[in-house]
Specification:
Tetrahydropterin Synthase, Chain A; single chain; binds nickel (II) ion; 3 helices; alpha+beta
């Protein structure tokens, strides 16, 4: 069976503040700059979800887009849209960086999709910042060990 890759785009808006209790206020400011602003700030995040799709002779593509939309909608968009990322339990003791967020999104999606289907998760945070994670041979990382 031949396979193609399909990337679907999703969006959510969320607030965050880059800050960690492991650093002093001065160190936080030095590390994160204006992203450490106590009042936080927002982003219009774009999530690019790439999955494998079996190409069948009959249909031309085997991906159930409706199912994918449902999973991403429930697991990612509903969870984060118009929320403060710093309040999410997964970020209780780690920083809401794009790297951590893209790892978290991967972990939320991979367990709801058929094994091996998820290929890559991309996260656009700002005009100039793009993060991505494409899995690894080891088990899905948690934010704490990542
Ligand atoms: Ni930010």
């Amino acid at each position: 069976m031949r396979q193609a890759r399909v990337t679907r785009r999703y969006r959510f808006c969320a607030a965050h503040r880059l800050h960690t209790d492991y650093l002093s206020p001065k160190e936080n400011l030095a590390t994160f700059g204006k992203c450490n602003n106590p009042n936080g700030h927002g982003h219009n995040y774009v999530v690019l979800v790439t999955v494998k799709s079996a190409v069948s002779a009959a249909s031309g593509g085997g991906l159930d887009l409706g199912r994918l939309d449902q999973i991403v909608g429930e697991q990612v968009v509903a969870r984060f849209d118009h929320h403060d990322l710093n309040q999410d339990p997964e970020f209780a003791d780690c920083t809401t960086t794009g790297e951590n967020l893209v790892l978290l999104i991967w972990g939320l999606l991979v367990k709801h999709l058929p094994a091996g289907q998820l290929e890559k998760v991309g996260l656009i945070e700002t005009r100039d910042n793009y993060f991505e994670y494409a899995g690894s041979a080891s088990p899905v990382p948690t934010l704490r060990e990542a």
